[in-house]
Write a structure and sequence with these properties.
Elements (H helix, E strand, L loop, with lengths): L7 E7 L1 E2 L11 E2 L11 H15 L8 E8 L7 H14 L2 E11 L3 H4 L2 H7 L3 E7 L3 H6 L6 H13 L5 E7 L6 H13 L4 E6 L7 H4 L7 H17 L3 E4 L2 E3 L6 H7 L3 E5 L4 E5 L5 E6 L3 H5 L7 E5 L5 H9 L6 E2 L1 H7 L5 H12 L3 E2 L7 E4 L1 H5 L1 H6 L4
Parallel strand pairs: 1-4, 1-11, 2-3, 4-5, 5-6, 6-7, 7-8
Antiparallel strand pairs: 8-10, 9-10, 12-13, 13-14, 15-17, 16-17
Helix pairs in contact: 1-2, 2-4, 7-9
């Protein structure tokens, strides 16, 4: 059994957006429905975030925070003052690793761009800008409120503000999108020279407007063509694919998401935030904070959280569902390091079956170091089924 707890990250959720996008299934709420005198309840939300964190501090167990991610919603809607106060409080309450990666999601709108310099001064050192597309018709279909020029300006202004680590979120497989349209979007994103590109296919999720009124999506052959040509273009320009939908320049992979996918721990605070915690006794559980902002704001911290224990029988699948998203070699002993449990025989046998089926490969199986093959990437669901309890 491992004697060291997994690395620890922090996730902070801000649940408000200007408008709910028709494809979005995240916990986001239209801001003007919660405003008083044109302002969001920033003071109350900050106080509740910190009370929420105080309740979770025992789970830190002496560990330094390696990464933090401020997601939403649209976190950049909040004021500069909100982030100065938040970051000051986080520095007081937590120990931080040297050069900890601290990411904020931001939208390209002009209003948010004016705040970038303050976000950087507050201590946020990585920006993730939600562009999704540069094409006016597709932006309108997606419900986005920025335009092509604002998207480009957002990257320029983030550089002026001092950000040297930027991710662009870009979608493909959009309604009525052709191969040429998808590659035009991707080419422009590459020209903006971000350190990281999250390039992922639109999926229709329940509880979204697109689910209730499905748009016309490209045919499967077009989707395959977009994926193949897009990945070739990314590779050509130095963006290596290291996860299903993540591409990065050398040494610029997202440290926060890597911790998720390697089955590290993370505390989640804010309305609807999720967490995953390992205790010194070997217990592993996930946390979910209450979703609705009003309920979150008006209850004591102990009423905000739901805990779901991960049963030992489910651990192999839970671990591999995360770990196999990453296209890198890993040792099966990582299972022991991140779960506090010995590597079960069933996990080893499942890997041996996957090796025979060509879904995994190993240079030296005696060292139990495996990598997902190209076939395994294409048939990831079939690969994961081998690890079902």
């Amino acid at each position: 059994m491992s004697t060291q707890l997994p690395p620890l990250s922090l996730y902070i959720h801000l649940p408000w957006c200007v408008r709910k996008c028709p494809y979005c299934d995240f916990n986001s709420h239209q801001a003007d429905r919660f405003e008083a005198n044109g302002k969001l309840p920033e003071d109350a939300y900050l106080a509740q975030l910190l009370a929420d964190l105080d309740a979770d501090l025992p789970y830190v167990a002496g560990r330094a925070i390696q990464t933090a991610f401020i997601g939403g919603g649209t976190p950049s809607l909040m004021s500069e003052d909100f982030y100065y106060r938040l970051m000051d409080a986080l520095r007081e309450k937590l120990t931080w690793a040297d050069n900890a990666e601290i990411t904020m999601e931001a939208n390209p709108g002009t209003f948010e761009q004016e705040k970038f310099r303050h976000f950087r001064q507050a201590g946020i050192n990585r920006l993730s800008i939600g562009i999704q597309s540069f094409q006016p018709n597709l932006l309108k279909t997606l419900g986005r409120i920025h335009n092509r020029d604002e998207a480009i300006q957002a990257v320029d202004k983030s550089r002026v503000a001092g950000f040297d680590n930027i991710n662009l979120d870009l979608m493909h497989g959009l309604p009525d999108q052709s191969l040429d349209m998808a590659l035009e979007d991707l080419s422009l994103a590459i020209e903006l020279n971000p350190e990281h590109l999250s390039w992922y296919q639109l999926t229709i999720e329940p509880n979204t407007e697109f689910y209730r009124r499905p748009p016309t999506l490209p045919e499967d052959n077009t989707l395959w063509g977009i994926q193949d040509a897009g990945q070739a273009l990314l590779t050509q320009h130095g963006y290596a694919q290291y996860e299903v939908s993540a591409n990065a320049k050398e040494n610029r992979r997202a440290a926060h998401n890597l911790n998720y996918w390697r089955f590290g721990d993370y505390i989640g605070i804010g309305a609807g935030a999720h967490g995953k915690i390992t205790l010194a006794n070997g217990e592993i559980f996930r946390t979910r904070k209450t979703r609705h902002p009003n309920h979150y704001l008006n209850n004591l911290p102990e009423a905000l959280v739901i805990k779901d224990a991960i049963e030992q029988a489910d651990l192999p699948l839970e671990f591999m569902m995360n770990r196999l998203r990453l296209f890198e070699t890993f040792e099966l002993q990582d299972y022991q390091r991140f779960t506090y449990q010995s590597v079960p025989d069933a996990l080893i046998k499942a890997c041996e079956i996957a090796l025979k089926q060509g879904l995994l490969e190993a240079d030296e199986w005696k060292n139990q170091r495996v990598t997902t093959t190209e076939k395994g990437k294409l048939f990831l669901n079939e690969l994961l089924e081998l690890f079902l309890p």
